[in-house]
Amino acid sequence: MKSRIEIKRICAWCGKEFIAYKTTTNCCSHKCGNALYKKRKRDAAIIANNNLTKKIVTEKPIEKIKDKPFLTITETAIYLGVTRPTIYGYLKRGDLKATRIGTKFLLSKDDINNMFNHPADFKLPPKEKQAITEFYTTAEIIEKFNVSESWIFVMARKNKIPKTFNRGKTYWSKKHVDAYFSSKAPDADITEWYSVQEVQDKFQMSLNAIYSFVYKNAIPKKKVGITVYYSKKHFDIAKGIRQAEEPKYYTVQEAMEKFKITRDQLYHYTKYHQIPKIKKGKYTLISKPELDNLFEDPIIE
Protein backbone atom coordinates (compact mmCIF):
# COMPACT_ATOMS: atom_id res chain seq x y z
CA MET A 1 0.00 0.00 0.00
CA LYS A 2 1.39 3.37 -1.03
CA SER A 3 2.18 5.80 1.78
CA ARG A 4 0.07 8.96 1.98
CA ILE A 5 3.02 10.94 3.28
CA GLU A 6 4.42 13.35 0.72
CA ILE A 7 7.73 14.99 1.52
CA LYS A 8 9.53 17.44 -0.70
CA ARG A 9 13.20 16.53 -0.89
CA ILE A 10 16.32 17.29 -2.91
CA CYS A 11 17.94 14.29 -4.61
CA ALA A 12 21.30 13.57 -2.98
CA TRP A 13 22.75 12.63 -6.37
CA CYS A 14 21.32 14.82 -9.14
CA GLY A 15 20.08 17.72 -6.98
CA LYS A 16 16.56 17.75 -8.42
CA GLU A 17 13.51 18.32 -6.25
CA PHE A 18 11.17 15.34 -5.92
CA ILE A 19 8.33 13.98 -3.80
CA ALA A 20 9.37 11.25 -1.34
CA TYR A 21 6.95 8.92 0.40
CA LYS A 22 9.38 7.80 3.10
CA THR A 23 11.53 9.85 5.41
CA THR A 24 14.56 7.68 4.58
CA THR A 25 14.41 8.27 0.81
CA ASN A 26 17.40 10.27 -0.41
CA CYS A 27 17.22 9.92 -4.19
CA CYS A 28 14.61 10.67 -6.80
CA SER A 29 15.05 7.42 -8.76
CA HIS A 30 16.54 3.97 -8.66
CA LYS A 31 19.26 5.13 -11.08
CA CYS A 32 20.31 7.97 -8.78
CA GLY A 33 20.17 5.64 -5.78
CA ASN A 34 22.53 3.17 -7.45
CA ALA A 35 24.93 5.93 -8.44
CA LEU A 36 24.96 7.33 -4.90
CA TYR A 37 25.49 3.86 -3.42
CA LYS A 38 28.46 3.20 -5.72
CA LYS A 39 29.97 6.57 -4.87
CA ARG A 40 29.69 5.86 -1.16
CA LYS A 41 31.33 2.45 -1.64
CA ARG A 42 34.16 4.02 -3.65
CA ASP A 43 34.67 6.72 -1.04
CA ALA A 44 34.72 4.11 1.74
CA ALA A 45 37.29 2.04 -0.17
CA ILE A 46 39.48 5.10 -0.75
CA ILE A 47 39.31 6.04 2.93
CA ALA A 48 40.15 2.48 3.99
CA ASN A 49 43.16 2.36 1.66
CA ASN A 50 44.36 5.77 2.76
CA ASN A 51 44.07 4.72 6.41
CA LEU A 52 46.02 1.54 5.68
CA THR A 53 48.75 3.50 3.92
CA LYS A 54 48.85 6.00 6.76
CA LYS A 55 49.12 3.16 9.26
CA ILE A 56 52.01 1.55 7.37
CA VAL A 57 53.82 4.88 7.01
CA THR A 58 53.24 5.73 10.66
CA GLU A 59 54.16 2.34 12.07
CA LYS A 60 57.09 1.68 9.69
CA PRO A 61 57.55 -2.09 10.28
CA ILE A 62 61.26 -1.80 9.51
CA GLU A 63 61.64 0.66 12.40
CA LYS A 64 60.28 -1.91 14.84
CA ILE A 65 62.89 -4.50 13.95
CA LYS A 66 65.98 -2.43 13.19
CA ASP A 67 67.23 -2.62 16.78
CA LYS A 68 66.31 -6.26 17.39
CA PRO A 69 69.29 -8.64 17.54
CA PHE A 70 67.11 -11.64 16.61
CA LEU A 71 64.35 -11.80 14.03
CA THR A 72 61.48 -14.16 13.28
CA ILE A 73 60.94 -15.58 9.79
CA THR A 74 58.41 -12.86 8.98
CA GLU A 75 60.62 -10.10 10.37
CA THR A 76 63.57 -11.44 8.38
CA ALA A 77 61.46 -11.32 5.23
CA ILE A 78 60.57 -7.68 5.99
CA TYR A 79 64.20 -6.87 6.77
CA LEU A 80 65.44 -8.30 3.47
CA GLY A 81 62.41 -7.24 1.43
CA VAL A 82 61.57 -10.78 0.29
CA THR A 83 58.85 -13.34 0.96
CA ARG A 84 58.70 -16.00 3.67
CA PRO A 85 59.24 -18.88 1.18
CA THR A 86 62.43 -17.15 0.05
CA ILE A 87 63.70 -17.14 3.65
CA TYR A 88 62.85 -20.85 3.95
CA GLY A 89 64.86 -21.41 0.79
CA TYR A 90 67.86 -19.63 2.33
CA LEU A 91 67.55 -21.85 5.42
CA LYS A 92 67.33 -25.07 3.43
CA ARG A 93 70.38 -24.16 1.34
CA GLY A 94 72.33 -23.21 4.46
CA ASP A 95 72.71 -19.55 3.51
CA LEU A 96 71.10 -18.66 6.84
CA LYS A 97 70.78 -20.48 10.14
CA ALA A 98 67.89 -20.40 12.59
CA THR A 99 67.32 -21.49 16.16
CA ARG A 100 63.99 -22.86 17.28
CA ILE A 101 62.64 -21.52 20.56
CA GLY A 102 59.23 -22.90 21.36
CA THR A 103 57.16 -22.54 18.23
CA LYS A 104 59.28 -19.79 16.69
CA PHE A 105 62.40 -19.79 14.56
CA LEU A 106 64.78 -16.94 15.32
CA LEU A 107 67.60 -15.72 13.11
CA SER A 108 70.55 -13.66 14.25
CA LYS A 109 70.73 -10.30 12.53
CA ASP A 110 74.52 -10.58 12.55
CA ASP A 111 74.28 -13.79 10.50
CA ILE A 112 71.99 -12.03 8.05
CA ASN A 113 74.36 -9.09 7.67
CA ASN A 114 77.39 -11.39 7.35
CA MET A 115 75.74 -13.08 4.40
CA PHE A 116 76.42 -9.91 2.42
CA ASN A 117 80.07 -9.61 3.49
CA HIS A 118 81.15 -12.32 1.03
CA PRO A 119 79.06 -11.74 -2.09
CA ALA A 120 79.54 -14.01 -5.08
CA ASP A 121 80.40 -12.58 -8.48
CA PHE A 122 77.26 -11.91 -10.45
CA LYS A 123 77.57 -12.52 -14.15
CA LEU A 124 74.88 -12.85 -16.74
CA PRO A 125 75.69 -15.40 -19.42
CA PRO A 126 75.88 -13.78 -22.84
CA LYS A 127 72.95 -14.51 -25.08
CA GLU A 128 73.91 -16.03 -28.36
CA LYS A 129 71.42 -15.90 -31.17
CA GLN A 130 71.26 -19.16 -33.05
CA ALA A 131 70.98 -18.93 -36.78
CA ILE A 132 67.80 -20.35 -38.30
CA THR A 133 68.71 -22.82 -41.01
CA GLU A 134 65.57 -24.93 -41.43
CA PHE A 135 62.41 -23.56 -42.99
CA TYR A 136 58.96 -24.50 -44.21
CA THR A 137 57.48 -23.02 -47.33
CA THR A 138 53.89 -21.83 -47.08
CA ALA A 139 52.77 -24.77 -49.21
CA GLU A 140 54.51 -27.25 -46.92
CA ILE A 141 52.75 -25.85 -43.84
CA ILE A 142 49.38 -26.03 -45.61
CA GLU A 143 49.99 -29.64 -46.61
CA LYS A 144 51.41 -30.82 -43.27
CA PHE A 145 49.06 -29.08 -40.85
CA ASN A 146 45.92 -28.76 -43.00
CA VAL A 147 45.52 -24.99 -42.58
CA SER A 148 44.78 -22.16 -44.98
CA GLU A 149 47.31 -19.70 -46.34
CA SER A 150 45.61 -16.66 -44.80
CA TRP A 151 45.53 -18.39 -41.41
CA ILE A 152 49.29 -18.98 -41.57
CA PHE A 153 50.00 -15.27 -41.93
CA VAL A 154 47.62 -14.37 -39.10
CA MET A 155 49.10 -17.04 -36.79
CA ALA A 156 52.67 -16.02 -37.65
CA ARG A 157 51.97 -12.36 -36.96
CA LYS A 158 50.36 -13.10 -33.58
CA ASN A 159 53.10 -15.50 -32.49
CA LYS A 160 56.04 -13.66 -34.08
CA ILE A 161 57.15 -16.60 -36.22
CA PRO A 162 60.41 -15.65 -38.00
CA LYS A 163 60.16 -15.59 -41.78
CA THR A 164 62.24 -14.69 -44.78
CA PHE A 165 61.68 -14.14 -48.49
CA ASN A 166 63.61 -15.70 -51.32
CA ARG A 167 62.79 -15.68 -55.02
CA GLY A 168 59.19 -14.73 -54.47
CA LYS A 169 58.53 -17.36 -51.80
CA THR A 170 57.92 -16.96 -48.08
CA TYR A 171 59.89 -19.27 -45.80
CA TRP A 172 58.92 -19.85 -42.16
CA SER A 173 61.17 -21.01 -39.33
CA LYS A 174 60.62 -24.76 -39.00
CA LYS A 175 61.56 -24.75 -35.32
CA HIS A 176 59.04 -22.05 -34.40
CA VAL A 177 56.23 -23.49 -36.51
CA ASP A 178 56.72 -26.96 -35.04
CA ALA A 179 56.80 -25.51 -31.52
CA TYR A 180 53.53 -23.67 -32.13
CA PHE A 181 51.67 -26.72 -33.41
CA SER A 182 53.22 -28.86 -30.68
CA SER A 183 51.80 -26.51 -28.04
CA LYS A 184 48.37 -26.83 -29.64
CA ALA A 185 48.55 -30.60 -29.93
CA PRO A 186 46.24 -32.59 -27.63
CA ASP A 187 47.64 -34.43 -24.62
CA ALA A 188 49.02 -37.79 -25.73
CA ASP A 189 47.58 -39.41 -22.58
CA ILE A 190 44.04 -38.61 -23.74
CA THR A 191 42.82 -41.46 -25.90
CA GLU A 192 39.03 -41.15 -25.66
CA TRP A 193 37.14 -38.28 -27.23
CA TYR A 194 33.58 -37.07 -27.65
CA SER A 195 32.46 -35.48 -30.87
CA VAL A 196 30.07 -32.54 -30.60
CA GLN A 197 27.22 -34.74 -31.78
CA GLU A 198 27.99 -37.37 -29.14
CA VAL A 199 27.96 -34.72 -26.41
CA GLN A 200 24.62 -33.43 -27.64
CA ASP A 201 23.12 -36.92 -27.74
CA LYS A 202 24.46 -38.01 -24.34
CA PHE A 203 23.99 -34.85 -22.27
CA GLN A 204 21.19 -33.13 -24.20
CA MET A 205 23.18 -29.91 -24.51
CA SER A 206 22.92 -27.19 -27.12
CA LEU A 207 25.97 -25.96 -29.01
CA ASN A 208 26.16 -22.77 -26.95
CA ALA A 209 25.88 -24.78 -23.73
CA ILE A 210 28.69 -27.08 -24.87
CA TYR A 211 31.00 -24.18 -25.76
CA SER A 212 30.31 -22.46 -22.44
CA PHE A 213 30.79 -25.68 -20.45
CA VAL A 214 34.07 -26.50 -22.20
CA TYR A 215 35.40 -22.99 -21.62
CA LYS A 216 34.44 -22.84 -17.93
CA ASN A 217 35.89 -26.29 -17.15
CA ALA A 218 39.00 -26.00 -19.37
CA ILE A 219 38.21 -29.28 -21.13
CA PRO A 220 40.95 -30.31 -23.60
CA LYS A 221 39.91 -30.44 -27.22
CA LYS A 222 41.37 -31.30 -30.59
CA LYS A 223 40.42 -30.53 -34.15
CA VAL A 224 40.62 -33.05 -36.95
CA GLY A 225 39.82 -31.33 -40.22
CA ILE A 226 36.64 -29.40 -39.44
CA THR A 227 35.50 -31.73 -36.64
CA VAL A 228 36.10 -30.77 -33.01
CA TYR A 229 36.51 -33.42 -30.31
CA TYR A 230 36.46 -33.03 -26.52
CA SER A 231 38.25 -35.18 -23.95
CA LYS A 232 35.80 -37.83 -22.74
CA LYS A 233 37.55 -38.22 -19.39
CA HIS A 234 37.56 -34.51 -18.57
CA PHE A 235 33.99 -34.05 -19.77
CA ASP A 236 32.75 -36.92 -17.60
CA ILE A 237 34.65 -35.61 -14.55
CA ALA A 238 33.20 -32.13 -15.04
CA LYS A 239 29.73 -33.66 -15.32
CA GLY A 240 30.29 -35.65 -12.13
CA ILE A 241 29.91 -39.11 -13.65
CA ARG A 242 33.58 -40.01 -13.20
CA GLN A 243 35.85 -39.57 -10.17
CA ALA A 244 38.76 -37.17 -10.62
CA GLU A 245 42.23 -38.58 -9.99
CA GLU A 246 44.57 -37.16 -7.38
CA PRO A 247 46.78 -34.70 -9.28
CA LYS A 248 50.50 -35.46 -9.29
CA TYR A 249 51.43 -32.09 -10.72
CA TYR A 250 50.68 -28.43 -10.09
CA THR A 251 50.00 -26.05 -12.90
CA VAL A 252 51.96 -22.81 -12.62
CA GLN A 253 48.83 -20.94 -11.55
CA GLU A 254 47.95 -23.52 -8.88
CA ALA A 255 51.46 -23.41 -7.42
CA MET A 256 51.49 -19.60 -7.36
CA GLU A 257 48.14 -19.47 -5.55
CA LYS A 258 48.98 -22.19 -3.02
CA PHE A 259 52.43 -20.96 -2.00
CA LYS A 260 51.77 -17.21 -2.48
CA ILE A 261 54.72 -16.65 -4.78
CA THR A 262 55.25 -14.94 -8.11
CA ARG A 263 55.84 -16.70 -11.41
CA ASP A 264 59.50 -15.63 -11.43
CA GLN A 265 60.03 -16.98 -7.91
CA LEU A 266 58.38 -20.28 -8.86
CA TYR A 267 60.60 -20.73 -11.91
CA HIS A 268 63.65 -19.84 -9.81
CA TYR A 269 62.81 -22.50 -7.20
CA THR A 270 62.13 -25.19 -9.78
CA LYS A 271 65.39 -24.46 -11.58
CA TYR A 272 67.57 -24.04 -8.48
CA HIS A 273 66.19 -27.12 -6.69
CA GLN A 274 65.87 -29.14 -9.91
CA ILE A 275 62.19 -29.88 -9.38
CA PRO A 276 60.86 -32.05 -12.22
CA LYS A 277 58.44 -30.43 -14.61
CA ILE A 278 56.81 -31.49 -17.83
CA LYS A 279 55.17 -29.72 -20.72
CA LYS A 280 51.68 -30.81 -21.71
CA GLY A 281 50.35 -28.81 -24.60
CA LYS A 282 50.55 -25.16 -23.59
CA TYR A 283 50.71 -25.95 -19.86
CA THR A 284 53.82 -26.39 -17.71
CA LEU A 285 53.24 -28.94 -14.93
CA ILE A 286 55.46 -29.04 -11.84
CA SER A 287 55.92 -32.13 -9.67
CA LYS A 288 53.58 -31.89 -6.68
CA PRO A 289 55.52 -34.02 -4.12
CA GLU A 290 58.84 -32.20 -4.68
CA LEU A 291 57.26 -28.75 -4.55
CA ASP A 292 55.31 -29.61 -1.40
CA ASN A 293 58.51 -30.88 0.19
CA LEU A 294 60.38 -27.69 -0.72
CA PHE A 295 57.84 -25.46 1.01
CA GLU A 296 57.45 -27.55 4.16
CA ASP A 297 58.40 -25.77 7.36
CA PRO A 298 62.08 -26.46 8.01
CA ILE A 299 63.06 -28.74 10.88
CA ILE A 300 66.22 -27.48 12.51
CA GLU A 301 67.64 -29.64 15.24
Characterise this structure.
- The protein has 301 residues and is of the alpha+beta class.
- It has five domains: 53 residues, no CATH class; 54 residues, Orthogonal Bundle (Multidrug-efflux Transporter Regulator, Chain: A, Domain 2), CATH 1.10.1660; 50 residues, Arc Repressor Mutant, subunit A, CATH 1.10.10; 47 residues; 45 residues.
- 47% of the residues lie in helices and 18% in strands.
- The chain contains 14 helices and 14 strands.
- The strands form five sheets. It has a three-stranded antiparallel β-sheet with strand order 3-5-4. A three-stranded antiparallel β-sheet has the order 6-8-7. Strands 9-11-10 form a three-stranded antiparallel β-sheet.
- Strand 4 and strand 5 form a beta hairpin.
- It is extended and about 75 Å long.
- The termini are far apart.
Write the layout of secondary structure elements.
Blueprint lengths: L6 E4 L6 E4 L9 H30 L1 H5 L4 E2 L1 H8 L3 H10 L5 E3 L2 E5 H6 L20 E3 H8 L3 H11 L3 E4 L2 E5 H11 L8 E3 H8 L3 H10 L4 E4 L2 E5 H8 L9 E3 H8 L3 H10 L4 E4 L2 E5 H7 L7
Antiparallel strand pairs: 1-2, 3-5, 4-5, 6-8, 7-8, 9-11, 10-11, 12-14, 13-14
Helix pairs in contact: 3-4
